[in-house]
Amino acid sequence: MWWLLRKVLFLLDAEDAHAFAKVGMRWLARLTPFKPLLKDNPIGLAAGFDKNAEMIEFLPYFGFGSVEIGTVTPLPQGGNQRPRLFRKPSDSTLFNRMGFNNLGAGIISERVRSAKKRIPSGFKIGVNLGKNKSTPDELAHLDYAKAAAPFADTADYFVINVSSPNTPGLRALQTPEHLGVIVKEVKEVIRKSGRLTPLYVKLAPEITGEPLKDLVQALESAGVSGLVLTNTLGGDYIYRQKTLSGGWSGQILSTVSRDRLIEVRGITSLPVISVGGIMTVEDALERMKLGASGIQIYTGWIYQGPFFARKIYQRLFG
């Protein structure tokens, strides 16, 4: 049934199909006989799918144990001009240049607070934090703290996103110096809340070797709780003879994301959430065997269907 529906959805613009699918999955969640699978469930929905916290209460029924909403910026942001999301079914990949489009931390935090009242106990909500495009790099640390503050009493974990290729200059923040200040500011928000909310940092797949080792060791010293590996692979897409810059996800990212997991496991014992190119159940099982404390899916969910996470869970736990 999914393969027929997918053919229809893939006839639509990718972003329109995304919006249509979100509505459809809300109804499917209400009709499904399946119950949430929350016991020790390490399977999350990656950031970018539920940017504005519209689907939280429905996701447990599709086999997810967590969701990472956002990326959330302090102020609302329209993102880049459409079209900004493209499929390449022949390679099971997606290309996006969304640009942190979201309703802003104030509105989204209220949605999270409301959803918390309706979700099963044990389902985790992470918040992916970003800076507004107009904020200069030297003030980025303030944006990350402002984005985190409205979620201080509700988030189950935070993720600092300095690795998206869709905001000009953002990846320049992936240095020990910049991240040290950003981590300090967000940790202060967490401290003031009186909660022990874990804080992760999401890194780009292109960082490897000594730069990766130095960065991971600096983050460990700064007191982060773990890492999310990896973000999308930076690159270009040709659309109507125009070159668009953005990030690739899906099959194209499978090997490099897996390799970053292996590399980081040799550097630190910090927990790692592995994301990127998990397109099959076997991919998911391999990431867990390689030492991931959890996994996240996005593009694999689009290509494999709404109950892909349930299939992974059943193989993990029988």
Q: What is the H-and-E element order?
A: HHEEEEHEHEHEHEEEHEHEHH
Rounded to the nearest angstrom, the distance between the terminal CA atoms is: 24 Å
The outline comes out as globular
The proportion of residues in beta strands is 15-25%
Major sheet: size, sense and barrel closure?
Answer: 8 strands, parallel, barrel
CATH superfamily: Aldolase class I
Assigned CATH class:
Alpha Beta
Using the CA coordinates, give the radius of gyration.
18 Å
Helical content, roughly? 25-40%
Number of strands: 12
CATH architecture: Alpha-Beta Barrel
Residue runs with pLDDT of under 50 for 5 or more positions? none
Multimerization state: single chain
What is the number of helical segments per DSSP (H or I, 4+ residues)? 10
Secondary-structure-derived class? alpha/beta
Numbering strands along the chain, what is their spatial order in the largest sheet? 1-2-5-6-7-8-11-12
User: How many domains would you count in the coordinates?
Assistant: 1
Which descriptors apply to this entry?
TIM Barrel, 318 residues, alpha/beta
Task: Write a structural description.
It is globular and about 50 Å long. The strands form 2 sheets. It has an 8-stranded parallel β-barrel, surrounded by 7 helices. A 4-stranded antiparallel beta sheet has the order 3-4-10-9, with no helix packed on it. The mean pLDDT is 96. It contains 10 helices and 12 strands. The two termini are 24 Å apart. Helix 5 packs parallel to helix 6 (209-222) and helix 8 (281-289) packs across helix 10 (308-317). It has a single domain (2-317), classed as Alpha-Beta Barrel (TIM Barrel), CATH 3.20.20.70. Helices cover 36% and strands 19% of the residues. Strand 9 and strand 10 (242-250) form a beta hairpin. The chain is an alpha/beta fold and 318 residues long.
